[in-house]
Amino acid sequence: MATAESSEASPVTYADVAAAADRLADVTHRTPVMTSRTVNERVNAEVSFKCENFQKTGAFKLRGGYNAIAQLPPDAKERGVITYSSGNHAQAIALAGRLHGVDATIVMPENAPQVKLDATRGYGAEIVPYDPDTTTRETLGQTLAEERGLTLIPPYDHPDVIAGQGTVGDELFEQTGPLDALLVCCGGGGLLSGCAIAARHHAPDCTVIGVEPAAGDDATRSFHSGELKTVENPDTVADGARTPYLGDITFPLVLEHVDDMVTVSDDALVRAMHLLWERMKIVVEPTGALGAAALLSRAVQGQGRRIGVVVSGGNVDLGRAATLFDSQDFAS
Amino acid sequence: MATAESSEASPVTYADVAAAADRLADVTHRTPVMTSRTVNERVNAEVSFKCENFQKTGAFKLRGGYNAIAQLPPDAKERGVITYSSGNHAQAIALAGRLHGVDATIVMPENAPQVKLDATRGYGAEIVPYDPDTTTRETLGQTLAEERGLTLIPPYDHPDVIAGQGTVGDELFEQTGPLDALLVCCGGGGLLSGCAIAARHHAPDCTVIGVEPAAGDDATRSFHSGELKTVENPDTVADGARTPYLGDITFPLVLEHVDDMVTVSDDALVRAMHLLWERMKIVVEPTGALGAAALLSRAVQGQGRRIGVVVSGGNVDLGRAATLFDSQDFAS
């Protein structure tokens, strides 16, 4: 476990998570916790999967997005919000904006899959496409925010976003009771740090472990070294965990509240994803299978423990998933 | 609606379904009921999906199999049970046998998928392979039953099997309250007639509709004509509904308790299956998507009603599903 002094005024506390849970109570699904005898036998543990693939928009991101917009002052709500994302955060902000009656602008690469553009537009958001070869989404997002007076809701490095994502862990502990360990996938660390804060409250002795794809192990190396590491454009199928580095807010929170970080290979990830689909009958995106992959690949030992695993989302093109599965031999 | 005199001594009554529910209470999963805003908007109804794809063995069949073995006299349990099936009933009897401590023998075609042979063997059943070109499963099953003194548990045409399958409907009504309509897929009619009996008890005015693949419309034509029709080896992706005819017990029950029968094309079926996977994030086998397909293809109109749909199972080879999805254009 990495050690760090508890900061005097942490940017996110359990009280923030609890307040977010109140705000989300009538908005987000209280997603089910699922179990699998097959998984339990294979990993020698009692595993509780928190299924955020069943969340509205197909991923946990709505929690943080909604919680962040909820706390904007009236004049900021009047002007609208903006974010940049080609993934689950885009749809989350689009829907959160609609639910709040707040205009949402989403900066998305012009080559993003049509299905994602359509889904985001379907929630009523304005999409501003950009050419990733000539500009960065951060630059364009910041420029538009200033020009139009929009509030930027970043995908993870924001206290209200983190508190919202922490409600995933909060609900899980309410649903399962105490857990010995909690496995959470890690991209920018918003979900991981939020859930770790919830775990500290519900089960102080629970071992909280972040899981990254091996090719994008920036957070794991940052955690173990105490220095922020970066991996640009990691070559991994876990598109939700391609974030190049932890944030100014999430990095200290991860250091303070997380007990360990591990990585899994893409092969192990695809195998775990296949098992969840085939045996548990749930559609999980690659990033959503990181926690399960850590157990199934023995990066984390079961040891007969009660283990919570956050399944972060289920947004994957079915054809792409088939291609991933085709790349491996699942005969046995 | 077809009419038929209520028989003086029906082979299956609601009391049988309720008794089965008691026997299964600590054995089978009380599977969740799921909803989808997308589906509701598309079909103009409030749809409750009863997700038996999350049942043990991945399909509803365990209910009937367990209920049937439970009621065997001790000496029959001692000698063991036998059935023939290359599908979900095989694994159901294998697991039900293990749970009861009763030896189970399963007659399966020697060319059955290895994964199904392994799964069935994994539950501890003895598999007797046969060459479908030289013998029929019924003949071999009957011969073995007589030679070895085994009790044959047929896949649908048995009162205790039907009563067990009826617990799917029983649970659904307990979970949702009254429904205006109930859609159930139909192969041999065990699930359909059992659920119809449950519906009559919980909601006498509920319209119960059986759904078949268009290529295997034997039950639909039998229902509408009042005469038993047969379709041998129908060419449909809904492998669980390839049963050639209703049974001696299920046909009269369907006539008595079911209000209508409709069919859906394989194209509509694969589209519905894709929607359930992509939007609801659940893995459903082709047969399990029949009810949803009836709504989405407008074979059954939503009309703002509360509609229950039984999702019968989720056992489909993921590669095969990908091939089915590939065969259609889901761009819009």
Descriptive keywords:
2 domains, 332 residues, homodimer, Rossmann fold, disordered N terminus, 14 helices, four-stranded parallel beta sheet
Interface with most residues: A-B, 24 and 24 residues
Strand order of the largest sheet of chain A: 1-2-10-7-8-9
The helix-strand sequence of chain A is HEHEHHEHEHEHEHEHEHHEHHEH
Structural class estimated from helices and strands of chain A: alpha/beta
Proportion of residues in β-strands of chain A: 5-15%
Oligomer status: homodimer
**How many strands in all of chain A?**
10
Q: Which architecture of the largest domain in chain A per CATH?
A: 3-Layer(aba) Sandwich
Supply the number of helical segments of chain A. Answer: 14
Largest sheet of chain A: 6 strands, mixed
* CATH topology call of the largest domain in chain A: Rossmann fold
Provide the gyration radius of chain A in Å. Answer: 19 Å
Total number of distinct structural domains of chain A = 2
Q: What is the residue-averaged pLDDT of chain A?
A: 94
N- and C-termini, Cα separation of chain A: 36 Å
Helix content of chain A: 40-55%
Low confidence ranges of chain A:
1-5
Shape of chain A: globular
CATH class of the largest domain in chain A: Alpha Beta
